[in-house]
């Protein structure tokens, strides 16, 4: 199996930024002119990179004389690296991708790298890829592996919190019986937190997303599978064995479609991104032969295409039928929709809203705000960053 690293959209910018971070890390405080001399980068490249780093809060700039220019009578602005007290690594494992990110304890992402590969069927290769992606992300950030204090990962499968192993039923058929935290601990030699992807999504939304002030929220990862991460009373709720939130396998009335779990009529057998894409191909490319690959526009551009919006709205109403029961049980303040299908935005959210209003008790329906994520596909990654920071800042040294 080949893991193809995705070329970073702004590889040159990331390199410049890594060079600057490295030179500041080595020298402490430098003027822009000195950075230019030490790195061989043009003054304008240094200037725009410094502006980026200032915007991100990674450096500060003062007008006191920089050491090497002092005494020449010129007051040069001095750029200093702001050091967060620890660095963490975070991983988002999807079914077909792995992303690694290096962040500091303020949650600022300093570098990241993604590879597309078959995560479900090749656990060994995935762990190897995770190590190489971590090194790429560290290179982009201008840091080394030995500077990392802790790491965390979200995995797209059922994880038994009593034993830490992946369990069936799970899409990760080749991972069953594996202990991802122990494997990652062996690879990186640091404390590790692991959770399922929907749980990480809920954490990410609470820490960095639209759920920032919300203590009772449900994050729905609507992708190949459909799972919910539950944050209740300000805490992640995992259940007795860690497998709460498997809403993708709640049965719908009047649906007989077979699900990969062996039952019929499960939510994800009719409203997964795979099913929605299949129907979108049907309405957007009616001439396509069965099995033919059709490039669809991104889901967030389909709100104004009536037939497509109808397909997405229908998936929303179906998911909302199940969420209405969850709303009746849990009375959350917010439901945040993420995952690939979550990128569809308004038509999906309106469909969900319609069913929640129709099927949940009026008082609980009224109390819940239903929104699409604003973190794109990064809720899970930000959740892993939050989990890693928790490990880094609470463990005893
Ligand atoms: Zn099922």
UniProtKB/TrEMBL annotation:
An MF annotation (GO) of this entry: DNA-binding transcription factor activity
Family annotation (Gene3D superfamilies): 3.30.420.40, Winged helix-like DNA-binding domain superfamily/Winged helix DNA-binding domain (1.10.10.10)
Residues spanning the signal sequence: none
One Pfam family from the record: ROK
CDD domains xrefs: HTH_ARSR (cd00090)
Domain HTH marR-type: 16-66
Family: Belongs to the ROK (NagC/XylR) family.
This protein's name: Transcriptional regulator
Species in which this protein is naturally found: Kitasatospora phosalacinea
């Amino acid at each position: 199996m080949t893991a193809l690293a995705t070329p970073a959209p702004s590889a040159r910018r990331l390199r410049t930024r890594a060079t600057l971070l490295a030179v500041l890390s080595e020298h402490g405080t430098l003027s822009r002119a000195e950075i230019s001399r030490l790195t061989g980068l043009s003054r304008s490249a240094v200037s725009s990179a410094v502006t980026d780093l200032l915007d991100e809060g990674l450096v500060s700039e003062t007008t006191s004389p920089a050491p090497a220019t002092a005494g020449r009578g010129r007051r040069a602005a001095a750029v200093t690296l702001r050091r967060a007290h620890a660095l963490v690594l975070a991983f988002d494992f999807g079914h077909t991708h792995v992303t690694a990110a290096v962040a500091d304890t303020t949650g600022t992402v300093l570098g990241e790298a993604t590879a597309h590969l078959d995560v479900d069927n090749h656990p060994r290769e995935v762990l190897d890829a995770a190590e190489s992606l971590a090194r790429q992300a560290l290179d982009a950030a201008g840091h080394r592996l030995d500077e990392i204090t802790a790491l965390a990962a979200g995995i797209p499968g059922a994880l038994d919190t009593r034993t830490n192993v992946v369990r069936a039923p799970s899409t990760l058929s080749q991972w069953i019986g594996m202990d991802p935290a122990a494997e990652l601990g062996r690879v990186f030699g640091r404390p590790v937190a692991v959770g399922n992807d929907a749980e990480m999504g809920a954490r990410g939304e609470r820490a960095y997303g639209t759920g920032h002030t919300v203590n009772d929220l449900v994050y729905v990862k609507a992708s190949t599978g459909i799972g919910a991460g539950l944050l209740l009373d300000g805490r992640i709720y995992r259940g007795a064995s860690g497998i709460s939130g498997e809403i993708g396998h709640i049965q719908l009335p009047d649906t007989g479609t077979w699900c990969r779990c062996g039952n019929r009529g499960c939510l994800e057998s009719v409203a997964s991104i795979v099913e929605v894409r299949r129907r979108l191909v049907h309405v957007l490319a009616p001439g396509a032969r069965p099995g033919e690959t059709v490039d669809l526009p991104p889901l967030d551009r389909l709100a104004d295409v009536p037939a497509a919006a109808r397909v997405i709205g229908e998936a929303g109403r179906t998911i909302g039928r199940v969420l209405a029961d969850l709303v009746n049980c849990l009375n959350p303040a917010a439901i945040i929709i993420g995952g690939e299908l979550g990128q569809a935005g308004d038509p999906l959210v309106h469909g969900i809203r319609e069913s929640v209003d129709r099927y949940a008790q009026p008082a609980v329906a009224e109390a819940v705000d239903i929104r699409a994520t604003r973190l794109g596909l990064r809720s899970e990654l930000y959740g892993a960053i939050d989990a890693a920071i928790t490990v880094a800042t609470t463990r005893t040294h």
